[in-house]
Amino acid sequence: MANIINFNKAGKKIAKIKQEKQAVENRATFGQKKPAKRIIKKEIKALKDHLDAHKISDKDDNGDKERS
Q1: Rounded CA separation 53/47 (Å)
Q2: What's the CA gap between 17 and 10, in Å, rounded?
Q3: 47 and 40 Cβ atoms separated by less than 8 Å
Q4: pLDDT top residue among 29 and 7
Q5: Within a domain: 29
Q6: What is the pTM of this model?
Q7: Residue 63 falls inside a structural domain
Q8: Cβ–Cβ under 8 Å, residues 44 and 52
Q9: Buried b or exposed e, range 22-46, using 16+ CB within 10 angstroms
Q10: How far is 18 from 23, CA to CA, in rounded Å?
Q11: Which residue has the higher pLDDT, 42 or 32?
Q12: Residue 1 domain-assigned (yes or no)
């Protein structure tokens, strides 16, 4: 005999799987404590400032673009 599929139960099972996947993503995004978020934000800012300090300017002293 063929397997009988209850579409109501199958739909609920698929919805539950999608909700669990969304929950995992939300925990990763929003599940951090405020002090941890502050530390991460400070580290990102420090790295950006460090990179900006070492950036090579596209303009020379006159304000004109350099010729390559």
Answers
A1: 10
A2: 11
A3: no
A4: 7
A5: yes
A6: 0.45
A7: no
A8: no
A9: eeeeeeeeeeeeeeeeeeeeeeeee
A10: 9
A11: 42
A12: no
